[in-house]
Design brief:
437 residues, alpha/beta, ten-stranded mixed sheet, globular
Length: 437
């Protein structure tokens, strides 16, 4: 019996429900429906991660319980209000529905810019989606959950910016999930042609802090020759969310990509990011900020692949840990034999605010070329007691003093954002978490 005809599977998203999901999309391209069927079979065929898999070292495998989650049928009445900033256009998803959407400015639409929900892009620009959808497949350990995303995705955005078009203000996508034991599978594709420029900000939030959620999201980010792409992902899932996010970044000749992610919510969160430097002059910045409290686990896996000479990459992941929280960072820089003159850097910094918190760091290098500059490092430290004393001696309450020093720790990453309004909005988002601790 094939996986497609089984009546049950490990997720509670059984094959009968998958068949309904597929039938609701019968009007979409045949290649897409076939891809969904293949992905469903792949998901069922692949085992859950095990201790034998080095890519899941230090992870809490007991927490990977996929039982009982279902696709939500209706949008939530409550959609969280998030910090706002000047932006060109936005769309908001609640569960599997588009509940709000602003019109793309006429001048951008006239230049050929596409900013559309995923299913709409499949219908109207199917060839474009097909060309870039998972062009570079996942390979950092979450292949099973990426397959589940392909099989069940119904939300997400497609951003296409034609050659030479520059968008000065960000575009925003918000994903909201509501309902206990509900699941979401957002998929976003960003395509910048030659010398284009754009910023995309994605929010991932739960409507309630106590509902159990399952999320598997995927992003395909493509920067054409000479383009400049900034991607910002910010998540504040519920305290009972099991979340997987897989980002694929492809950087062509003389292109620059800044990928910045902020992690605040979730019970167990796995984030994978693979940046591929494909042609001379390509540059990738990979940044992350995490505030972990309670018994949260944030598992971060990265790969910087230099496949061409004269490429560069810079990775900076910063984690703040409180209570009994646990973070994992495992990063690898790979330099191919022909990738001479590579300049790559990788750093993981952990700020420990509790004796019970733990941070595992595994930076690594795999270099086949002989004319490169590659460095990596990891540190774990505590707040400077003299700095705390200085602030408290001037009347700053202890909690506020901790917050100020944490923001100082984060500032190097936040300063990479050239949009001051976006910088301020992210600072406000992080500050909201500290108010609840």
């Amino acid at each position: 019996m094939s996986a497609l005809t089984q009546t049950t599977d490990a997720t509670g998203l059984n094959s009968e429900r998958f068949a309904v999901h597929l039938s609701q999309r019968a009007s979409l391209p045949d290649w897409w429906l076939e891809a969904k069927k293949a992905a469903w079979n792949q998901f069922n065929a692949l085992p859950l991660p095990s201790r034998a898999d080095e890519r899941w070292r230090f992870s809490n495998l007991k927490g990977l319980d996929l039982d009982g989650y279902l696709l939500p049928e209706e949008a939530a009445l409550h959609v969280p209000h998030l910090p706002d900033f000047a932006h060109a256009a936005e769309m908001t998803f609640s569960n599997r529905q588009v509940v709000d959407r602003s019109t793309l400015p006429a001048e951008l639409a006239a230049k050929g810019v596409i900013f559309a929900p995923f299913n709409e892009a499949l219908r109207d620009h199917g060839d474009l989606v097909r060309r870039y959808f998972q062009k570079h497949p996942a390979n950092l350990g979450s292949e099973k959950f990426v397959a589940l995303n392909t099989a069940l995705t119904a939300t997400g955005a497609v951003l296409y910016v034609p050659k030479g078009v520059e968008i000065d203000t960000p575009l925003v996508v918000q994903h909201t999930l509501s309902g206990d034991h509900k699941a979401a599978f957002p998929h976003t594709i960003v395509i910048l042609e030659d010398h284009a420029k754009a910023t995309l900000v994605e929010y991932f939030v739960s409507a309630s802090s106590q509902e159990a959620h399952l999320v598997s999201g995927v992003n395909d980010l493509h920067a054409g020759p000479g383009s400049q792409l900034t991607y910002v992902g910010v998540q504040n899932w519920s305290e009972r969310t099991l979340a997987f996010q897989t980002n694929s970044i492809a950087v062509e000749r003389d292109a620059r990509v800044l990928s910045a992610n902020v992690h605040l919510g979730g019970q167990q969160v796995r984030h994978e990011s693979h940046s591929r430097l494909l042609a001379p002059g390509a540059h990738s910045e990979m940044c992350s900020l995490t505030v972990a409290h309670g018994e949260q686990e944030f598992d971060q896996r990265t790969l910087q692949t230099h496949a061409a000479p004269h490429t560069s990459s810079n990775l900076l992941y910063k984690n703040v840990l409180l209570d009994r929280a646990h973070t994992i960072f495992s990063g690898l820089i790979v330099v191919d034999a022909d990738a001479q003159k590579t300049d790559a850097y990788q750093s993981n910094r952990n700020l420990m605010l509790s004796d019970d918190a733990s941070a595992d760091s595994l930076p690594g290098l795999e270099i086949q070329a002989n004319d490169v500059k590659c460095t990596h490092g990891a540190t774990s430290s505590r707040l400077d007691p003299e700095q705390l004393y200085y602030l408290q001696a001037r009347g700053v309450p202890p909690a506020r003093a901790h917050e100020l020093l944490v923001f100082g720790f984060f500032e190097r990453v936040l300063n990479k954002l050239t949009d001051d309004n976006l910088h301020e909005a992210l600072g406000t988002f992080i500050q909201e978490k500290f108010k609840k601790l």
